[in-house]
Design brief:
Length: 351
């Protein structure tokens, strides 16, 4: 289709095929689409509602245009879409450090804050990690390091063609959901928080089509994390199929807590929360981190065994075991050593 036909097709409420979505994203990534036409396409697509095939087509092309990073062995990404406007502490970042401390290799994809006060990149910088490392040098580090951060700005240079449109559009579009689907390291396992109730199962469907083991989840209070305040819905992806489950903190041995207990601040404040967690502080932040890390560790256990959990009870049991494993990673100092070693490598590289 020509671009006007493509937009008209979407305005009529008609879905694109996977190939049509790929073609549109290819044109965007190549700089062939003006900001106005791109905005019309993205708004029309999101107003209609993205399908699995459409989102997969966009994401696959974005990955193909990214700088690749090879991380050896099975890898995990824990990431959220943002957009919940809750301004919490950096739960997925802390959960990633915990999982790395538990012996799982983490390749975390992320960026600076857009809808929150402090994004992963912001808090890592405040902790002393140099994010300016070029992908070539980062590739060498990734062969040995227990955790690698793929800074989206460095790994997706073709996204510069969409920068103006993304900056000036004041409504959500497909771009708000592509980050967790476009990790250049192509991790084997992904734990993804999605605040948007309609988009969460679509994202799970993309992982299922790819054959990637994943869990897409949202707090039933709208958080893009597993929440302590109420239950969370989980779309569990294994062997190309998606199952929906509901989990609460008490199902896995954790206490409930109000959302206010997880509020964060600017980068320096959130970095201090990370340090206190890794030093052994107890409370709602630790419980929220362990809940999310526990789910991710359950995913990695399933991926390693190749056996599907039989139902909600089995999933809760597996996450409970993951919570215990995450707690040991904190209490033994292993998670803190992941961060300390990372900061030291970062400083050595910049000397």
């Amino acid at each position: 289709m020509q671009w006007p036909q493509l937009v008209s097709h979407l305005v009529r409420g008609e879905d694109l095929s996977y190939e049509q979505a790929r073609g549109a994203m290819g044109a965007i990534m190549s700089g062939e689409v003006s900001p106005v036409r791109m905005a019309a396409f993205l708004v029309a697509l999101h107003s209609k509602g993205e399908t699995v095939q459409e989102l997969q087509g966009l994401a696959d092309v974005m990955v193909e245009h990214a700088r690749a990073l090879e991380v050896p062995g099975p890898t995990l990404d824990i990431v959220g879409t943002g957009g919940d406007m809750a301004h919490t502490v950096n739960i997925s970042t802390m959960a990633s450090l915990v999982c790395a401390g538990a012996g799982v290799r983490v390749a975390k994809h992320g960026n600076r804050a857009s809808s929150s006060s402090t994004g992963t990149a912001d808090v890592l910088e405040a902790l002393g990690v140099d994010l300016t490392t070029e992908p070539e040098r980062l590739q060498a580090e990734a062969l040995e390091a227990p955790m690698t951060f793929l800074f989206a700005q460095l790994f997706h240079p073709a996204m510069r063609h969409a920068a103006t449109t993304r900056r000036e559009l004041a409504v959500p579009t497909a771009f708000n959901f592509l980050g967790p689907l476009t990790n250049p390291a192509r991790p084997a396992v992904a734990a993804v928080g999605c605040a948007n109730k309609a988009m969460a199962p679509v994202m799970a469907g993309v992982f299922a089509e790819r054959g990637t083991d994943a869990a897409v989840f949202r707090g039933d209070d709208g958080l893009d994390e597993l929440t302590l305040a109420t239950t969370s819905t989980v779309w569990w992806v294994f062997d190309g199929a998606v199952e929906e489950h509901v989990l609460g903190p008490q199902d896995v041995g954790l206490e409930t807590a109000p959302l206010e207990a997880l509020r964060g601040g600017q980068a320096d404040e959130n970095a201090e929360v990370v340090r206190r967690l890794l030093a052994g502080d107890h409370g709602p932040v630790r419980d929220a981190v362990l809940f999310n890390a526990g789910l991710a560790l359950a995913l990695t256990e399933q991926q390693a065994s190749g056996e599907r959990f039989g139902g909600r009870g089995d999933l809760a049991e597996a996450v409970r075991a993951g919570v215990a494993r995450g707690a040991e990673a904190i209490d033994s100092g292993a998670a803190a050593r992941v961060l300390d070693g990372w900061v030291e490598r970062s400083r050595s590289a910049s000397r």
